[in-house]
Amino acid sequence: MSIFSRSKSTATAEPVFDAGTSALADISGDYTIDASHTYIGFQARHAMVTTVRGAFKEFEGTATIDAANPAASKAELTIAVNSVDTGVADRDGHLASGDFFDVENFPTITFTTTKVEADGDDWAVTGDLTIKDVTKPVTVPFEFTGSAQDPFGNVRVGFEGEIAVNRKDWGLSWNAALETGGVLVSEKVKLKFDVSAIKNA
Prior knowledge:
The chain is mainly β. Helix content is 4%, strand content 50%. The chain has one domain (31-199): Lipid/polyisoprenoid-binding, YceI-like (Lipocalin, Beta Barrel), CATH 2.40.128.110. An eight-stranded antiparallel β-barrel has the order 1-4-5-7-8-9-10-11.
């Protein structure tokens, strides 16, 4: 299977959103992630029956895009772990505790690219993901969703991507067994990225 492959429904359906726009013939350049219009979230199974969603509210990142030579592209992202938000304060507190992220000792999550490939609008971004004191490589398939000039004069590009990881690979191993079998929190977690980045002047 190609690293650029993204799961798509075979059913014919109306698009969920309006069609993307194109303000740039060449998206190459230096960018800063617009945190107020970017979503970095995660999904996990709870009690093996439902999906719990959460997101990080505070982060910063930069990217250099080279459309002609994607291998020259790069990105860096730093996330403030104590900004985790699942909509339930007690659960957020548990995630910040030593059972999971151990925010007191490891306040940030970082991602730094090591390789970038592209095939049309499909990009494969490989990098080192560091959570707590563990660094492991991941490859996130992204889809370029368009470029635009907003009413405030900013030139933007958008990318969407997601990947499934095993949280235990980064030492996030807390769990509780269920009497019916299985565990309270799934080991597999889906990471979701909806990125809006502003081109630097």
